[in-house]
Amino acid sequence: MNMVEEAVKLIRESESIVVLTGAGASTESGIPDFRSNVGPPKKKKYDYPVEVLLSHTFFINNTEIFYDYYMNNMVYRDAKPNDCHKALAEMEKYCNVLAVITQNIDGLHQDAGSSDVIELHGSTRRNYCMKCGKAFSLDELFAMSRPVPKCDECGGIIKPDVVLYEEPLNEKDLTRAMKLTVKADAMLVIGTSLVVYPAAGLLNYYRGDKLIIINMDPTPFDYRARLVIHDSAGKVMRQIVDGLKP
User: Fold this and answer.
1) What is the distance, to the nearest Å, from the Cα of residue 95 to the centroid of all Cα atoms in its chain?
2) So where does NAD(+) get bound (predicted)?
3) What is the reported pTM?
4) Total H helices, total E strands in the chain
């Protein structure tokens, strides 16, 4: 029995599954992992590391430069769900998926049809005025004059509803993700290096013995996993879901 067949067997034996996804779940949709060597090209005009460019302090003090980087490197309006997203949505037909917990901000799990997605780091598709709270879609944000989009109601600066460095995760979302992880019989981790906290810390709440990690590179939690598959997320998830079909 190969590892994909073993994964299918473990999932079939599970009463409930929670899924955690990271950047590797979306790279096949053309969205690069900005933390890896295959991330967005390093542009000379940005004299700051990514962790600074995407920090709350930088957003407040250098809003124009923040938006220039953010809109050109973090937003992918034309991206479509790949086999990983589609397979996870389809998997709901064959087993009890409690939720897809994602570190991604692209909204592709929802596009693919996953019914319950917890976005730990927010979403590029949601934006709000910091002054009056008015909500704006991503298309509305793009239609605004640059370099800094401002509210058409009060003139306040609009902020993407994404969690920047120095900002806490949404407490309600994180708590719910923790509770579902504790409850899950099996945990499927896809396309994440498991080095970014508190998201990676969710694995410390998993109480089961069916941890499956699918990632191109090793992670700090591989030693705890029942199965570790080093391959592309889309390929493996398509094979797993095909194996789950009656």
Assistant:
1) 22
2) 23, 27, 34-35, 103, 105-106, 121, 192-193, 215, 233
3) 0.92
4) 9, 9
What are the binding residues for NAD(+)?
A: 23, 27, 34-35, 103, 105-106, 121, 192-193, 215, 233
Contact 202, 181 (CB under 8 A): yes
What whole-number distance in Å separates Cα of residue 239 and Cα of residue 72?
Answer: 34
Q: Write out pLDDT tens, residues 161-189.
A: 999 999 999 999 999 999 999 999 999 99
186, two tokens: 């099996």
> Where do the H-state alpha helices sit in 30-163?
50-53, 56-61, 63-73, 83-91, 108-112, 138-143
122 within 8 A of 162, measured Cβ to Cβ: yes
For 101, 132, 179, the CA distances from 91, given in Å and listed in that order, are 15, 41, 21
User: What confidence tens digit (pLDDT) does each residue in 85-124 have?
Assistant: 999 999 999 999 999 999 999 999 999 999 999 999 999 9
Round to whole Å and give the CA distance between 56 and 159.
10
- Please tell me the distance from the alpha carbon of residue 116 to that of residue 164, in angstroms, as a whole number: 23
DSSP symbol at 152: T
**Domains delineated in the chain:** 3-31+80-121+168-244 (3.40.50.1220)
Residues annotated as binding site for nicotinamide?
34, 105-106
Rg, the chain, Cα only: 19
Q: Any idea of the CA torsion for 132, 135, 141, 147, to the nearest 10 degrees?
A: 20
Main-chain phi, psi angles of 182, to 5 degrees:
-60, -40
